[in-house]
Every structure is written in structure tokens, then in C-alpha cells.
Design brief:
Length: 503
């Protein structure tokens, strides 16, 4: 599991790694530059005019090494040196010396920054990295403003966009990258939605520092990747019957909002549930039966909203429950929900309106168990815990909530963050902006409920569910882009199993 460590720990990490491997810091920088170039070659053509903007620290050193390697590969490269000659780090200096004579390198004066015209297709930002310790000013600020305003260029940040602190929210200006190629592990601040316009697409380039070195700086934050989920999947034998794959119950829906629970149910079936049943208000029975023949449906007493009384006998036959999508927040839905949560003690995914109802109730602890998973998006989350100043605070509050209530909290969005009561947080690496479409969250509810029902255990169910939901979204959007809708994500779930190589 890839650790997300603090930027401040990286110097010590480098020193330990270098000492144990018996290599120089220059070699490590060369590895980083090579990893960047391997990625770059897959993206850009040799005819592209590449401007590499280098500062005076090790980020600048990376940029210089990248420039030298790309130039040798035949790219049309120009180096721009920003920030003057003061405080040039040793490896940056060495890489300045290693620049081939024929590779153009221009020292940018303040006047050049103000007046120079650039004719570039690709701008590579290696001005400042994780060593940034104050808001940008002077030449760096002016250069960043100028580069951000260049039309028709691709902007790539080396390690982290210049100006962005690695663990805090941005104050002031920063380089606006289309892609950030970050070394070894994604920096914490790259996970914040406030920084979306600066980070662009995130690519993590492995520079060979093993987890053994990272672990000593662990902050209990992890980046969830494919290799972390494949082994968490259960194997089912050739003799498995539908009971082995779990019986799940999806509870929700209201008059005019029946699609949400239907999508959750279909997603659970596509994720592998043996049997899916829906509990809805009576107006939903015909709709669901007609639109999803694979499921069973029963209803609570009233027509438009879930309500008391409902049939409680036999609820224990369900291995897991997903509750909330489309259920509304009426008083009758509230009575129903609170009663249901007290009645069904098995694992549950609590989503959407079920969260909104809990948010207006005091003492919600009594309704939540250790196998329960809350899946709020940011607005739903803030209804639970109050308005947050920024995403960093939201992430802190998510962890506090999970610890205080002993349940799992899935804060949805780009890089969905999963908080566990043991104090760990996992940031998802899959998914894309095309999943920002109504119903995508209902699909996630169905998927996690399905894994819970299949007997995955809460941790594996949530990690597999969140990762695979994002993967299904990526697969669905390959040929649909912003035309992707939630049912496309459901249709892509089988392909996500194929991609993962899970039978
Ligand atoms: N293990 C890793 O992650 C590796 C990191 N490397 C690179 O090293 C970088 C970090 O290098 P450094 O620690 O030298 O830091 P930087 O290259 O980010 O720059 C630090 C220098 O900039 C100054 N500075 C900070 N904020 C400033 C501001 N707002 N305006 C002007 N100057 C400012 C600092 O006083 C210091 O002199 C990483 O981002 C990465 O690119 C790689 O070379 C190799 C391995
Ligand atoms: N930009 C994005 N990148 C990655 N995943 C996203 C993005 N936007 C939305 N998603 C995912 O799509 C889902 C949306 O859920 P939600 O907001 O609850 O939708 P709804 O309420 O319409 O079902 C979440 O799982 C979220 O992580
Ligand atoms: K940078």
C-alpha cells in the first residue's frame, strides 16, 4: 500500500534510501528524471517545442536532468533558469554543469520574464517542488502568472506545481498544470479539490524507493491502487450457489425517485450478488418489477414514502443492506429509517437521504455499528459535521467521525477518501470527472453492499467497492466522455472484473 507521507519527511527519506542503497543523491535525481522522461515520451512528439523552467533547488535539478535526457532523445528543448544563482542546491548545480553545450539554456532576468515571448507547445514546470515554504513572490510569481496565461500550450508540473505546498492549502498563486507527474507518492495536497485547477491529471512516477523506507514516516494515509485490491477479492468455488454470493437488500426510493434504488440494486447484481431484493414504498413495486426482472420487491405500508410499519420478520436472511438512495427526508421516511437501523444489525451502507436524516438527529451513535459504512458526498458530509473551512479540515473531521462512531466513512469525490476507525485513511486513485453525474453514488452504494453481502468483511468490501466503482467509471467513459451516465457505469462493472483479472 503506497504511503502518503509528509513533504517535510522527504529529505530524510532520500538520505536513508541513498545510504542504504549506496547510491548518490545525484543518482536518485537521475532516476526521477528518467521516470519523468519515460512518461513524457508516451505523451509528446519529438517535434514538440519543449520549454523547461528550472528553479535553483532540487526541483530545478530534476528539470535540468529532464532537459538533458529529452534533448538526447531528440526533443526540441530549451531550458529557462528562473530565480537567479543564489542558493543553488548541489545537485542542481551539478546538473547545470552537465547540460550539453548545444542545449540552449537562458537565465531569465526579471526583465526577460516581463517581456519575453514564448513559442512553445509544452511547458515543463520545474521551478519549485515540495521545498516551497512561502507564497510565491517576485520572479517566481511573475513567471507562474505568465506561464499560466500562455495560450495553446500543454503545462506539465514536475513533482508538484510550483507554489503549491505539499501538505497545506494554497495561499496565493501556483502553476496551473494540465498534468502533474509526481515522484514516488502523491503529495497530500494533490488530493484536495481546491487544487484541481493546479494539479490537472495526476500521474505517479515510481522512482524506486520501496515501501520499507516510506513506512517509517507513515501518517496512516495511503493511496489505493490496483495492486492493493486484487488480492482482497474472494474466490468462489465451482460449486458456489447463489447463497454464497450473498443476499442483499436495497432500501430506498420514493414517489418520483425510484431510479436511485433501482440503480443500486442493479449495481449489486452486476457486482456479483446472488440475490437482490428491494424494499420500497408501494408505488415502486410495479416500477421495479417491470424494469429489473432479476430482483424481488416488497414494500412498506404507505404509497409514496417508506414508512412504519413494515415487515420485519425474515430481515435477518439478508447478508447486507444498502439504505438511503431516493428515500426522501419526510417525517415518515425518518421514522422508518431510524427504526430500520435499530432493527437490522448486519452490515449496512448508509447513503444519500439516510445520511441527511441522520444529520438532523442527535445521538446518531446508537444507529451506527462497526460494520456500517456511510458514503456522503461533500455536502452530505457537511450536513453531518458542519461546514468546513477547506478540504484539509474536512479530511480531519472525516477521520474524527469514523473514530468517534466506530464506522467507516467514505467521503466521495475525486480521490474519494475512506476513513476507518483504526485511524487509517485511503485515497482512491480511480475515477474521473465523467462520473460526476446523477446516480453515480447510488451505483457505489450497490457495489459496496454487494461486497459486504458476499462476505468480504467491511474493510475489503469498501476498498474493493470504491476502487472498482472508479475503474468501472473509467471504462464506461472511454468512448462516452461527458456523455457517460450512471447506468453506463453499471454496465461497465463486468468489464472492470475482466480488467482486474478477478473471476
Ligand atoms: N524523494 C523525492 O521525492 C525526490 C525529490 N526530488 C526533487 O526535489 C524537490 C525538492 O527539492 P528542494 O527541497 O531542493 O526544494 P525546491 O526545489 O522546491 O526549492 C527549494 C528552494 O526554494 C526556496 N523557496 C521556497 N519557497 C520559495 C518561494 N516561495 N520563492 C522563492 N524561493 C522559495 C527554498 O528556500 C529553497 O532554497 C522535489 O519536489 C523533487 O522535485 C528529486 O530530485 C529526487 C527525489
Ligand atoms: N471528478 C470526479 N472524479 C472521480 N470520481 C468522481 C468525480 N465526480 C464524482 N465522482 C464519483 O461519482 C460518485 C458521485 O456520487 P454522488 O455525488 O453521491 O452522486 P449521486 O448522488 O448523484 O448518486 C462518487 O462515488 C464520486 O466519487
Ligand atoms: K514544480
Amino acid at each position: 500500500m503506497l504511503e502518503i507521507i509528509s513533504g517535510a519527511a522527504v529529505k530524510k527519506l532520500d538520505t536513508d534510501f541513498i545510504a542504504e542503497k549506496g547510491i548518490t543523491s545525484h543518482r536518485l535525481m537521475e532516476n526521477a528524471a528518467q521516470a519523468f522522461c519515460d512518461w513524457f515520451e508516451g505523451e509528446y512528439h519529438r517535434n514538440d517545442k519543449v520549454g523547461i523552467f528550472c528553479g535553483h533547488g532540487n526541483n530545478g535539478g530534476d528539470g535540468l536532468a529532464i532537459g538533458r535526457l529529452l534533448w538526447r532523445k531528440g526533443y526540441d528543448v530549451i531550458i529557462f533558469l528562473v530565480g537567479g544563482d543564489a542558493k543553488v542546491s548541489a545537485d542542481c548545480r551539478l546538473n547545470r554543469e552537465l547540460l550539453p553545450d548545444k542545449l540552449p539554456a537562458i537565465s531569465m532576468s526579471s526583465d526577460d520574464i516581463a517581456h519575453m515571448e514564448f513559442d512553445l507547445n509544452v511547458v515543463v514546470d520545474a521551478m519549485l517542488g515540495i521545498g516551497v515554504n512561502r507564497p510565491l513572490a517576485g520572479d517566481f510569481l511573475n513567471m507562474v502568472i505568465k506561464l499560466n496565461a500562455l495560450p495553446n500550450v500543454n503545462r506539465v508540473a514536475v513533482d508538484i506545481p510550483t507554489g503549491l505546498p505539499s501538505d497545506e492549502c494554497l495561499e496565493g498563486e501556483a502553476f496551473k498544470a494540465d498534468v502533474t507527474v509526481t515522484f514516488q507518492y502523491p503529495k497530500f495536497s494533490l488530493m484536495f479539490p481546491e487544487h484541481a485547477a493546479f494539479v490537472g491529471i495526476l500521474h505517479v512516477a515510481n522512482i524506486g524507493i520501496g515501501n520499507k523506507f516510506m513506512r517509517q514516516f507513515s501518517q496512516n494515509r495511503y493511496y489505493l491502487q490496483r495492486k492493493d485490491v486484487v488480492s482482497r477479492h474472494l474466490n468462489f468455488s465451482r460449486f458456489a450457489h447463489k447463497g454464497d454470493f450473498g443476499r442483499v437488500l436495497l432500501v430506498g426510493g420514493s414517489y418520483g425517485s425510484m431510479g436511485a434504488i433501482r440503480m443500486a440494486a442493479e449495481a449489486s447484481l452486476r457486482t456479483g450478488s446472488g440475490l437482490a431484493t428491494c424494499l420500497v414504498p408501494s408505488c415502486g413495486v410495479d416500477i421495479l418489477q417491470a424494469s429489473l426482472p432479476e430482483i424481488q420487491v416488497f414494500s412498506s405500508s404507505s404509497e409514496k414514502y417508506l414508512s412504519l410499519p413494515y415487515v420485519k420478520e425474515g430481515l435477518e436472511r439478508f447478508d447486507a443492506v444498502g439504505i438511503g438512495p431516493g428515500m426522501g427526508t419526510t417525517a415518515e421516511a425518518e421514522d422508518f429509517l431510524l427504526d430500520f437501523l435499530m432493527t437490522f444489525k448486519g452490515p449496512k451502507v448508509i447513503d444519500a437521504d439516510a445520511i441527511n436524516i441522520l444529520a438532523r438527529n442527535k445521538g446518531i451513535q446508537q444507529y451506527l455499528g462497526r460494520e456500517d459504512v456511510l458514503t456522503p458526498h461533500i455536502k452530505e458530509f457537511e450536513r453531518l459535521v458542519g461546514i468546513c473551512e477547506n478540504h484539509k479540515q474536512r479530511l480531519e473531521k472525516a477521520l474524527e467521525f469514523s473514530k468517534a462512531h466506530g464506522c467507516v466513512l467514505v467521503l466521495k469525490g475525486a480521490h474519494t477518501c475512506i476513513s476507518f476507525p483504526d485511524g487509517t485513511q485511503y485515497f482512491n486513485s480511480t475515477g474521473n470527472k465523467h462520473m460526476a453525474t446523477g446516480g453515480a453514488g447510488d451505483v457505489l452504494t450497490g457495489m459496496i453492499t454487494s461486497f459486504l453481502g458476499q462476505g468480504y468483511g467491511v474493510k475489503n468490501a469498501v476498498l474493493c467497492g470504491v476502487y472498482q466503482h472508479g475503474l468501472a467509471g473509467e471504462i464506461a467513459s472511454v468512448d462516452k466522455k461527458r456523455g457517460t451516465i450512471a447506468t453506463d457505469i453499471i454496465k461497465a462493472i463486468p468489464k472492470s472484473y475482466v480488467t482486474l483479472g478477478v473471476d
